[in-house]
Design a protein that fits this description.
The chain has 149 residues and is an alpha+beta fold. The protein contains 5 helices and 4 strands, in the order αααβαββαβ. The two termini are 15 Å apart.
């Protein structure tokens, strides 16, 4: 689907604040409420918009340990293992990647002990050949990107 400028404006407005009312979105996009409704419905049907969500400060919620975990997995079972890991509640990103490792997993834990328990658990999975864990010390930037107009 080719996005119109109105689609892009609406998407960029929602990236900034997905709690805005249709009227507020329309005002910011300089279009009618009916136009916003029409475009949102189309973007949802095309599954360009798949979820409305929020960003939180996880450190304030007690999740003090963030990690990037690279994994080497037997090729035939990569997707099976990754889908199993993706269900863990502390995992917020699972990526099938190129390079020296087959996967990248991003996770947040309240303590180093909980991270350690998770690492020991995934190391015991069949087909996991090797993991490399990097603890993230500081997050400089983490946000959604906009759509170019």
């Amino acid at each position: 689907m080719k996005l119109s400028n109105t689609d892009k404006k609406i998407l960029n407005i929602l990236i900034e604040n997905s709690r805005l009312s249709l009227r507020q979105i329309a005002k910011k996009a300089k279009v009618s409420v009916a136009t916003v409704m029409h475009h949102l419905k189309k973007l949802e049907q095309e599954q360009i918009i798949t979820k409305y969500t929020l960003m939180m400060d996880y450190e304030k919620l007690g999740y003090d340990v963030e990690a990037a975990i690279e994994m080497r997995i037997s090729k035939a079972k990569s997707i099976t293992v990754l889908k199993k890991i993706a269900f863990h509640p502390n995992i917020f990103g699972v990526y099938d990647i190129t390079g020296d490792f087959d996967a990248l997993v991003l996770a947040r834990f309240p303590t180093r002990k909980k991270l350690d328990e998770f690492l020991k658990k995934i190391q015991s999975f069949d087909f996991v050949e090797r993991i490399k864990t990097m603890v993230i010390l500081n997050t400089i930037k983490e946000e959604k990107i906009g759509v170019e107009l």
